[in-house]
Amino acid sequence: MALVKAIRRFTVRTVLPEPIRPLARLATNLRWSWHRPTRELFASLNPALWEASQHDPIALLGSISREQLQDLANNGDVVDRVQHAAADLDRYLSEPRWYQGLGEDAPACIAYFSPEFGITEVLPQYSGGLGILAGDHLKAASDLGVPLIGVGLLYQAGYFKQSLSRDAWQQETYPVLDPDGLPLTLLRHPARDGVPGKPVQISLPLPNGRELHAHVWRADVGRVPLLLLDSNVPSNDEAARGITDRLYGGGGDHRLQQELLLGMGGVKALRVYQEITGTPAPEVFHTNEGHAGFLGIERIQEAMSDPNQPLSWDEALAAGRASTVFTTHTPVPAGIDRFETVQIKHFFEAGLAPAVPTDRILELGRENYDGGNPSVFNMAVMGLRLAQRANGVAKLHGVVSREMFAGLWPGFDHSEIPITSVTNGVHVPTWVDPRISSLARNQFGAEAEALGRWDLAYNVSDEDVWALRRELRAQLIEDVRRRLRASWKKRGAADAELAWTDSVLDPDVLTIGFARRVPTYKRLTLMLRDPARLKALLLDPKHPIQLVIAGKSHPADDAGKKMIQDLVRFTDDPEVRHRIVFLPNYDIAMARTLFPGCDVWLNNPLRPLEACGTSGMKAAINGSLNLSVLDGWWDEMYDGENGWAIPTANNNSSSEERDDIEASALYELLETQVAPRFYGTTVAQGAGAAGPSESSRESVPTHWVSMIKHTLAHLGPAVSAERMLHDYVNNLYCPAAVSGRRAVAESFKEAKELAAWTSKVRSAWPEVVVEHVDSVGVSEEPQVGDTLQVNAYVALNNLTPDDVSVEVAFGRAEESDELEDIVVAELDSVEDLGGGRHLFHGSLVINRSGSFGYTVRVFPKHSALASKAELGLIANA
Q: Strand locations in 94-205, DSSP E?
């Protein structure tokens, strides 16, 4: 054993011979992580070292000796392939793509802030769905030519690595990352007189006279630069160096300082990056979840401290909101970061934003609404107040978000709350298995593959589809056996005890996958609700199933860890351990075989607590069928032929009753529908739960294969991240850019006008009253098609009819007088009655039989508002 230890460890980058020098650029641009030809090039340089490096090009190049590198440089075929790959990358980075065809109205630059980015396992800066989504967002933006800049933090240990103790308790380790060994470059000021420029350093003041400094690292995600701030710099004191120590690792002040650095420091980093590179200033700022919300405060600080034209608070707020998009990812209040108001005050009084009144900042995050806690600073509430446009990440999640944040818009119907939705998508080149791509390319040509012709799945023979599914299943099983053996060795087992791992799982058995984070609401152990029934399913002689399960629980979540322990103890049972496995340390590398290898993807959260749940999308693009509660994306995309919907219990059931009901429904589906269909059998009338009493079996289960083809053809384009980026660009980014440009044009003329108008309206609104409404034109026996004339007498006091929109809302009237299936029509101002009173008139056509009702409402109206509910002001009749 070596007794001499290094006092410092660092990575030395390889110097490549000139003929193969482009390999360095190919290795540092993360396009290789989803570009198959580039990965194949690296693998061919030294297949053994490629495997040993865990498919990390930088580690690979660092492992090849100088002599071997020179041999490669002397190999004409290798040099040609390297030059071809470099030229292909140059074309990819420079040629016009979809976005370049949108014209001048499209924003010249978009800043995308997120606390985590899951791009590749060699850059472990992600914990789960939020980070993977952010990584897919950048990749799809690159492929489409969207001029995005990502902004995040560089965590010294990333998220934790998970292992299991002998008694199946989750254990965490935090290997420290060396940025020099990652696909990153340190952002530096320009060189002068041949002397390299100094590293860029961002600084924020902290309480008690301290400062927080950060370097900025750049990752190239295809065409998209990603800026990552790193507080582990010599100029910081020990506490400040640890602020970016790990992802979601701390609480209280530690978490708050991470989010201040991400938001405020991130804007500062962007400004320096713009100056160094000449990149256009972002016209849109996208806040991916509330963690990055302080970016809005930094932008207000910039506007209020501009020496040439300082804006007031209201003006700066109006200008910043116009060009900001906020995406919320959580369907539960407990998932939102909340700080004590005194904490926020303590940090901002240290001079973080000296031009901005601290009390105004506190009001942005204050829960000053019914059911809120006014002493708490809510990051999502601040994010919504700082953004003119907001969205959830699935249609159902949009509904849930509008209900969850309804307190910010009192008096409005939930459907009118200005939070829309953009359903998440997944980056297909990253997540689709190469075998599926190869099949498409071989059968239909590279052009069809490039165009994403998912409908061509129908043209593949059933036999080819079924054979490919078995091949993918076998690939997964090989990976499972290797990982399971390694896991047991970490749990303390000897090699002599582990021969059984060589025969775990069967390539001809229905394989079900379940992998995600392990908070309690995702119900990892719902499948264990009736252990005997699960065991019967696993060991069924005619229709057996097998399960591959993975997931991490947050280090502070003992309830989640207990779920993992309960599940692993079940999988340890020698009777079933060949049919059910738990794999620790779920990450991108594991996912690459897990999604394609599973026949069915299981998801059973408590509805409606799954915001989107993109793991099922990744399974679908690989030909897996979903078996899921109707939550998240599945609620809108399940069609009866792409999988199965697990019925849900009534919301008024107790948690125990709900779990019992939904677990029973899950078992029933597996026993009577999923397994028989996979095995190509027809269950005879009256078959029991343990399996069919009589059945006929197909060599290729045609109904199952037809569901696979249907899934690929219909879900493939619907769940792609390219579709998601199209939605963001068309529905949020372009409108935000237009609003932002208008707000700042002519020395912020519109922002100033909007701020003054908003102040006037807020002051006058308490006196706005719908005094009286009358109607004429309906007979004693109203009929469908009758026209109703509506007159509304409204006291506007200091406002004018141009400041408001008066509308009649009508629809089906319930017994409680609440309106359903509402239609609205705007009323016209027809007479000034004096004394601030006005008559508004309009007509509506009775469009339904049965109970009918209407009401009149008044909203503020201004051309710079994105919705009638934006200011949260309404006057009802």
A: 110-113, 148-153, 161-164, 170-173, 185-186, 201-205
**CA dist 176 to 12, 51, 181, 223, 245, Å?**
16, 22, 11, 28, 9
CATH number for the domain running over 450-679+699-716: 3.40.50.2000
DSSP per residue, 466-529:
HHHHHHHHHHHHHHHHHHHHHHHHHTT--GGG-GGGGG-S-TTSEEEEEES---GGG-GGGGGS
In whole angstroms, give the CA distance from residue 261 to residue 291.
10
Q: Residues, the chain, total?
A: 877
CATH class entry, domain 108-191+199-421: alpha beta
Helices assigned H by DSSP within 572-631:
588-597, 615-620
What would the DSSP string read from start to end of 781-806? S--TT-EEEEEEEEE-TT--GGGEEE
**Reported confidence tier of residue 13, pLDDT bands at 50, 70, 90:** low
Phi, psi of 582, deg, nearest 5 = -115, 125
CA distance 496 to 877: 80
pTM of the predicted model as reported, rounded to 2 decimal places: 0.94
Beta-carbon neighbour count of residue 238 at 10 Å? 6
Answer whether CATH 1.10.3470 is correct for domain 765-876: no
Give the separation between CA 294 and CA 285, rounded to whole angstroms. Answer: 12
Residue 234, CA atoms < 13 Å, CB-side half-sphere: 1
Beta-bridge mates of residue 112: 150, 286
Distance CA(617)–CA(602), nearest Å, equals 11
**Residue pair 464/727 in contact by the 8 Å Cβ criterion:** no
Structure tokens given for 345:
């005050």
Distance in angstroms (rounded) separating the CA atoms of residues 601 and 515 = 9
pLDDT single digits (tens) 144-157: 999 999 999 999 99
pLDDT in tens, 661-681: 999 999 999 999 999 999 997
**pLDDT reading at 251 higher than 80:** no
Q: In Å, how far are 118, 395, 521, 606, 715 from 610, measured between CA atoms? A: 19, 12, 8, 7, 19
Where does CATH 2.60.40 sit in the chain? 765-876
State which H helix or E strand residue 226 sits in. Answer: strand 224-230
Residue recorded with tokens 């004339």: 789
What would the two tokens of residue 108 be? 């010249």
Instruction: Work out the number of other CB atoms within 10 angstroms of the CB of residue 130.
Output: 23
